[in-house]
Every structure is written in C-alpha cells, then in structure tokens.
Amino acid sequence: MTEDVEIPEEVDSIALKFLDLSGKAREIRVPVNMWDVVKKDGMSFDSSNVGFADVSDSDMVAVPQPSTMRIMKYGEKKVATFLCEMYWPDGSRFEGDPRYMLRKTMEELKEDGYEIHVKPEYEFHILNENTLEPFDSGHYIDGRIGYTDMVEEVTEVMGEYDFDVEKVHHEAAPGQYEVEPLPYDDPLQAADEFIFIKEAIKRKAREHGAYATFMPKPVPKDAGNGFHVHLSLFKDSEYLFSSDELNEEAAGFIAGLLEHAKALSAVVSPSINSYKRLIPGYEAPVYISWGGENRSVLVRIPAYGTSEQKKGRVEYRAGDATANIYLMLNSLIRAGMKGMKESLDPGKNMKEDLFELSEEEIQKMGIEILPGNLSEALNELEKDEVVKESLGTSFKYYKDLKEKEIEEFKREITEWEMFKYMDY
What we know:
Blueprint lengths: L12 E7 L5 E7 L3 H7 L1 E4 L12 E6 L5 E5 L2 E11 L10 H14 L2 E7 L1 E7 L18 H14 L4 E6 L5 E6 L5 H21 L2 E4 L15 E7 L2 E2 L8 H12 L1 H8 L5 H4 L9 E2 L1 E2 L7 E2 L13 E3 L8 H17 L17 H6 L3 E2 L4 H10 L1 H6 L4 H17 L3 H7 L3
Parallel strand pairs: 1-6, 15-16
Antiparallel strand pairs: 1-2, 3-4, 4-6, 5-6, 7-12, 8-10, 8-11, 9-10, 12-13, 12-17, 14-18, 16-17
Helix pairs in contact: 2-8, 3-4, 5-8, 6-10
C-alpha cells in the first residue's frame, strides 16, 4: 500500500499516527523490523474505539503516508513517525477519514483550477506542571530576560525539526505564547505539520517541568488560545483576493464564511471549553462580521505581512486547537468556496471596535453572534448542509461524539459549584 521508504539506521521504533474525530492524536507503535509488513499491508486497529465506526463493523487499517515521515526524538530514542490514512480491510477507502477528506477537497479544487494557501497561528499556554498556574507573568511580546527564554526554546525546537516559522513570541496573557509558521502552499501540509509541532512544543515544555496546553481557555481570568487561519486563493496561479479592495471573489468567500459561521462553530470550536473563550469581553471574535484591520470581527483582511502575504488573504478568527485540524480546514474552505461560487454578499465592512459597543448597539447594527455553547453549535450544524457535507460520512459519528461530550459535562460537579453551593 505504501511506496518504498527507507527507515534510517538510528531509528529505534516506528510510530503510526492519526487524528481521531475529536482531534486527538492516536498512535500505534511498531518495531523497526515490522516495517516491511506495515508498508505493504498497513496496521489494523479497532476503529469503534476512536469514533470512526460502529462496533459491529469496526476493523480498519491505518496506512502510513510516505511524505509525512519525521524523525521525532524521545529523550535518547529516535522514532520514525508517519501520519496515516484509513482503509477498510478489503483495501477500499474509508470515506470518513478527515485527512483523506481534506486531500480530496484540494484535488477537486485543483481540477477546477483553484489553489488555496493557508497560514495558521498557534496559541498555547505554558503552565506549572504541579499547580497548572501560568509558567510566567509576562505579557504581549514581552522582551524581559526570563520571559524570552521559552520563546528561544520553542524557536530552537522549530528549527530542530525543520519547521518553517515566521515568528515566535509571548502572547498577551501570562504563560501564553504564539507560533506563526510561514504560509503553507498546501493545507494538507499545514495540518500534518501542526500534529508534529504540537507534540514538539509539549515535549519541550516537559523538559522544563512545565505543561504546554493548546486548550482554548485554561486560565479563567485571562485571554484564551485561538487558532486563527489565514487563507489565500489562487486561480491559474493568479491571486483572486486583493489587499487594496474587496473584489468579487474575496467578497463571496468572506460571505460564505459568515453565512455558515454558526454551523462552522461546531467544527472549528468543538469543545465545551471552546465557549469559555468565545464570550464578549476577552477580545474573542464572537460577532459574525468582517472588516479590514479590525480585530473585533470574525473575518478580517490583515494589512501586515510579507510582500507575498500582502497580495491578499482573509483571516478566520474563531477556531481553536480542540478541533480536528483536517476537519477545520476542510469546512472553512468548503464554506468559503460555496459563498464565492454563489457570489454571496458579506455585508458592511465593520470599522467600529465591536468590543466597545453594548449588546443593544450590536443588535441595532443587525450583527449576529456565534453560538454560546456547544449544544447551540450542534443545532446549527444539523441545519447546515454545506458544513455537514464537509464532514462526509463521519457526520453521524462526529455528532454522536459531541453529544456524548455534552452529556458527560452535564453530569459533572465542578469545583465552582462546590464553592458556590456547598453552604446551602
């Protein structure tokens, strides 16, 4: 099933990785001497345990993708790590595989002459391993000695694994950092590399007795972690978006993102914790609107960047890293392209700081707000055929997974509840 790939002599074992529907990495570890078998036949696993299928029809095969191999370091050990796509035992494709669905979308766009480049932004917190309090008390692009140490460590680990990074810096909240890679020509490559980047950052933090988390809202009183995605669209190698004016293609693409924003929330902000971040008052993009350099809107057109980036891009600001990144990118791309093909109108360019306006003023402007919790987002997803279609045959399993998550949360008694109501 896999073209011939040589495993370097210094490698101690092989890891086969993939993301489940909830976006968590799953791994099967095999000895190096099993490679000849694995590259030919893949490795079987129980897909019902990762949410891909029913228990009555759960045999599935993970097939390593040669282009994704990276040598990851685990202390003194080196592991040849492959990302996988899923097949049924008879050799047919598992159509609900998130990586495969994104790849298929890119192939379809290519056939129509389109190409999409993406530039994600990864925000995360470094927390004390024992107390889970922020690792430092720094602030946005803090340059004081001590607060730059972790920036240097993260920069080094990016270079160690040959990730092309534009910048690394301390973010606004204590213990919060951001990595901005250079733009990716291929969204599939961006999704693949995020899996490795996330693991590398977590391992670097562990070396310092700390814990790295991409959780949307790990510290209640501080700003949360977003996962902003910049998208640039080309046709026949020509930019379709413009940084100087909102042309028809860009307008339609933005309108598609806004039209489907409520349903998209269930995919790009798919956890209970996501909606602790997406509340007014913390500069979170909750208002379904667009603007130029305006950071209070959901979709904006950045004015900064390299000369290449300035040729035209849009930025979607509501996602977070609890999403399955393949599903996130696939749904965003499909929603934007749908709006462009239907020539939808994105409405008024918002120049006002929406964070400073009252709820009444927001309503008078006709601006809608993203769902306030995961249940609302799932209800919107159920009604939206475009976003549902982006999940393919995995829609049913994805919805079931998220509904189970909601039920689990309903049964939990939180520390806040104990403190608030114990005296009654």
